Automatic annotation (TrEMBL):
The keyword Chaperone does not apply. It is found in: Membrane. This is V-type proton ATPase subunit a. Its main location: membrane.
């Protein structure tokens, strides 16, 4: 009677949107070819239909619309080329394009081709002009530097000289430090001695190897002079500035000249003829300077024209890229559809939420009307063999918690969603490990800053770490609020206790116990109204007291959350109509867990309420080793020993209850179902037999008793051992909380207070800086991450393994909103 009333009450409850995934419908679309493109485009804007790939066995090149996809890919390449050119030119593409009339894909393809050809031609001309400019610039520098190495027979040399040891002399010192080469040239003119030279310019990084190669090729019969160029020269291909060195090589003989020219060509050195006549040198220099000025003007005009063309492209670049992405996505989706036998209609299949069927039908009717098609689009619901995708409607607040659950595994279709409870339990368990309301306020300020700048940050491109932090801003907000709450319970503000809710319940017996242990204190009033009494801080019993409190609290929280997981497995089994799981899985599991660890939780609460000194370790150990022995001083209530014997027997019975009945009942049901089906095959079509999940053909081959029994045995052993290990795993709440508290105390007492004890402002400032650094980077960053990961593990392993399968797949509708820059 009670169970019937309870089931009636549960049936009358309104379903939660996030508790179970949305009901999905498997639909088929038959679309006339003339309206297919518009229909898929409209569905992409709606974003509520996930298409199945009906051509999965075909390669991308065998599909119907492969040419259109190639065209879109080619246009994407051109748009990326424009974007690279705009970035190289230092221009910014407009994020908000100028409103212009929409263009068709064919017109856009023609425009992009024209723009590309124009840009390629401009780039080619610019490279040629830049190369000519570089050559003239190099010639000018060679003329300026090489004159210093050349001395005619009728005049004195005036310029700087660089010998093999690369010593550079200024013009003022030149008269005092004349070279041997100058002395020889004064006495013997070059045209009479047969001494010749080659001048040129080479990148500075190759000079040493170039000189060594020349020395070896000529066997030392040459004189190499070099001087650094005054200006860097731009490489027209890479647009990088390159440092170069001017050189002059003196040699004798035609054979040496041939070798030197080949080496210059191999090292990429540019050679330029420099006349020995001063008049000719000046004349050539004037001509070079004149041509350089002309080329500079031409280059500037070309750059202005190119930038103007790029700017006009930049105004529409974002719009064009989005348009091409959409078109490519539409044709990729059309490639997932099949033509019917008449080749006039496209047939598509997919999943949509049941609530969206009316919207999809309305969208398809609008597509038919806009495309002036004489035939409407057929949309109807079909039966599906495969499991539907999982779709939860989330908002900005719940999305981050749903992502935490989905990182473990996507929920099976319509199974209970842990994210509903994770919204509260995840930040709370984090706060149990992180409890300090000073640190919680710091986290709260960070979360509020992210939420306040939400609209601005959501439109920016963030780094990986900042993007993760921004995505979890509401998780951070709840973690901060719960940390403040737990910090008030622990009475810790950067590890310092405060008398926030009134005075302490304890006072000193005499004047000598100001900082002594608890034996010197006596209770003189009601307990501290909220949280831990501040007088425990600094007492000798502080650590044993807090250890006992947090350890027992961790067990209580763990048993409560594991019970919640088992209860959710009941609701799953009830929802799917699986009475076997309720009778032979839920019931023995809830009995086993609570007969052992539920009983331990009860003992903890009774001990807290009664103030008993009973040793719970002794009680639990001897409950197994000698359950019939007298408990003595460890007895907490009347009838404890027979209750322990009863609970132990129930726990022992629960293990075979989980293991044995279910496999044998499944075998019996399968045999009965198979026998019943053998007499009804004639009245059922072959197609129905194949499609029906409960048919004899599908079950007779799939059912394997030994496999089912082994699976059930593994599941039972896993639960029994997991009940112990999972309860012990929740003790990490105690360990992390203790570590956080002790670290805070160490930084406060051994850094801040120690520095404040000195009467020196510099030491105090240094101590304050070290304390702030340790708080920010160790306690607020590393400890936050550590507590986050431990809370994550408690939810994924200890909580979700009681009921959550997580073997579903996400609903991924065809939507233009989900297209990103990386889709190309």
């Amino acid at each position: 009677m009670v169970l019937e009333k309870m089931e009636m009450f549960l049936d009358n409850l309104q379903p939660m949107d996030l508790m179970r995934s949305e009901k999905m419908s498997f639909v088929q679309l038959i679309i006339p070819a003339e309206s297919a493109h518009r229909a898929i485009s409209y569905l992409g804007e709606l974003g509520l239909l996930q298409f199945r790939d009906l051509n999965a066995d075909k390669s991308p090149f065998q599909r119907t619309f492969v040419n259109q996809v190639k065209r879109c890919g080619e246009m994407s390449r051109k748009l990326r080329f424009f974007k690279d050119q705009i970035n190289k030119a230092g221009l910014l593409s407009s994020a908000h394009p100028v409103i212009e009339p929409d263009v068709e894909l064919e017109e856009l393809e023609i425009q992009l081709g024209e723009h590309e050809n124009e840009l390629i031609e401009m780039n080619s001309n610019s490279e040629k002009l830049q190369q000519s400019y570089n050559e003239l610039l190099e010639f000018k520098m060679v003329l300026q530097k090489a004159v210093g190495f050349l001395v005619s027979s009728n005049s004195h040399a005036v310029a700087e000289e660089t010998e093999l040891n690369e010593n550079v002399y200024s013009n003022d010192d030149y008269g005092e430090t004349t070279s041997l080469l100058e002395q020889e040239l004064r006495s013997v003119p070059s045209n009479q001695s047969g001494l010749r030279f080659i001048s040129g310019i080479i990148p500075r990084s190759k000079v040493v190897r170039f000189e060594r190669m020349l020395f070896r090729a000529t066997r030392g019969n040459m004189l190499f002079n070099q001087a650094p160029a005054d200006e860097e020269i731009m490489d027209p291909v890479s647009t990088e500035m390159v440092e170069k060195t001017v050189f002059v090589v003196f040699f004798s003989g035609e054979q040496a000249r041939t070798k030197i020219l080949k080496i210059c060509e191999a090292f990429g050195a540019n050679c330029y003829p420099v006349p020995e006549d001063v008049t000719k040198q000046r004349q050539i220099t004037r001509e070079v300077l004149s041509r350089l000025s002309e080329l500079e003007a031409t280059l500037d005009a070309g750059i202005r024209h190119r930038n103007k063309a790029l700017a006009s492209i930049g105004y529409q670049l974002t719009k064009w890229m989005n348009m091409v992405k959409r078109e490519k996505a539409v044709y990729d989706t059309l490639n997932m559809l099949n033509f019917d036998v008449t080749k006039k209609c496209l047939v598509g299949e997919g999943w949509c939420p049941s609530f969206a069927k009316a919207q999809i039908q309305e969208t398809l009717q609008r597509a038919t009307f806009d495309s002036n098609s004489q035939v409407g689009i057929i949309f109807h619901v079909m039966d599906a063999l495969e499991s539907p995708p999982t779709y939860f409607r989330t908002n900005r607040f719940t999305n981050a918690f749903q992502e935490i659950v989905d990182a473990y595994g996507v929920a099976r279709y319509e199974e209970a969603n842990p994210a509903v409870y994770t919204v509260v339990t995840f930040p709370f368990l984090f706060a149990v490990m992180f409890g300090d309301w000073g640190h919680g306020i710091c986290l709260l300020m960070g979360a509020l800053i992210l939420i306040a700048r939400e609209s601005k940050l959501s439109s920016q491109k963030l780094g990986s770490f900042m993007e993760m932090l921004f995505g979890g801003r509401y998780v951070l907000l709840l973690m901060a609020l719960f940390s403040i709450y737990c910090g008030l319970i622990y009475n810790e503000f950067f590890s310092v206790p405060f008398h926030i809710f009134g005075g302490s319940a304890y006072k000193c017996r005499d004047t000598t116990c100001s900082d002594a242990h608890i034996a010197g204190l006596m209770k003189y009033r009601d307990p501290y109204p909220f949280g831990v009494d501040p007088s425990w801080r600094g007492s000798r019993s502080e650590l044993p007291f807090l250890n006992s409190l947090k350890m027992k609290m961790s067990i209580l929280l763990g048993v409560a959350q594991m019970n919640l997981g088992i209860i959710l497995s009941y609701f799953n089994a009830r929802f799917f109509g699986n009475s076997l799981d309720i009778r032979y899985q839920f019931v023995p599991q809830i009995i086993f867990l609570n007969c052992l660890f539920g009983y331990l939780s009860l003992l903890i609460i009774i001990k807290w309420c009664s103030g008993s000194q009973a040793d719970l370790y002794h009680v639990m150990i001897y409950m197994f080793l000698s359950p019939t022995d007298d408990l003595g001083e460890n007895q907490l209530f009347w009838g404890q020993r027979p209750l322990q014997i009863l609970l132990l027997l129930l726990a022992l019975i629960a293990v075979p209850w989980m293991l044995l009945p279910k496999p044998f009942i499944l075998k019996k049901l399968h045999t009965e179902r198979f026998q019943g089906r053998t007499y009804g095959i004639l009245g059922t079509s072959e197609m129905d037999l194949d499609m029906e999940p409960g048919s004899a053909r599908s079950h007779h081959d799939d059912f394997n008793f030994s496999e089912v029994f082994v699976h059930q045995m593994i599941h039972s052993i896993e639960f029994v051992l997991g009940a112990v290990s999972n309860t012990a795993s929740y003790l990490r709440l105690w360990a992390l909380s203790l570590a956080h508290s002790e670290l805070s105390t160490v930084f406060y007492e051994k850094v801040l207070l120690l520095a404040w004890g000195y009467d020196n402002i510099i030491i105090r400032l240094v101590g304050l800086a070290v304390f702030a650094f340790a708080t920010a980077f160790i306690l607020l960053m590393m400890e936050t991450l550590s507590a986050f990961l431990h809370a994550l593990r408690l939810h994924w392993v200890e909580f979700q393994n009681k009921f959550y399968h997580g073997d579903g797949y996400k609903f991924k509708p065809f939507s233009f909103a989900s297209i990103t820059e990386d889709d190309d």
